[in-house]
Amino acid sequence: MHEDVRCPCLSGDTYSACCGRFHAGAAVPSTAQWLMRSRYSAFALGHAQYLLDTWHPLTKPSSLELDPSLTWRRLDILRTESGGMLDSDGVVEFTAHYRQDGIPGQQHEVSRFQKVTGCWYYLDGESAG
Predict the structure, then answer these.
(1) Phi, psi (5° rounding) for residue 39?
(2) Domain positions in the chain
(3) CB-count exposure of residue 73 (10 Å: 0-12, 13-18, 19+)
(4) What is the pLDDT of residues 111-125, one digit of tens each?
(5) Which of 13, 37, 57, 116 is most buried, by the most CB atoms less than 10 A from its CB?
């Protein structure tokens, strides 16, 4: 992806200055929200290995196959609880908008994150609404 392209997480930064640095392994997300944003961008760009690498070992699936018929369009962060640099647990509620075979849809989820040895991981999520 070209470094001047806007990041899929819609932070307003370029991909390389935002989630691209996490996907490349040059940085580690410092908050649960940044991990959520980087995971959304990984879904949008088809980076399944990054998703597996940032999934908590207790809940991580053995493999992950992304649906190529989904085109992720927009991420709305609705709220966060904890998940800061000094926290060990966090919650991020979001709505991710997509198109599947030309039909719009959305995924509304409350996701839980946990920090293990200084790194944030996606623990699990519950569909909301």
Answers:
(1) -70, -40
(2) 19-127
(3) middle
(4) 999 999 999 999 999
(5) 37
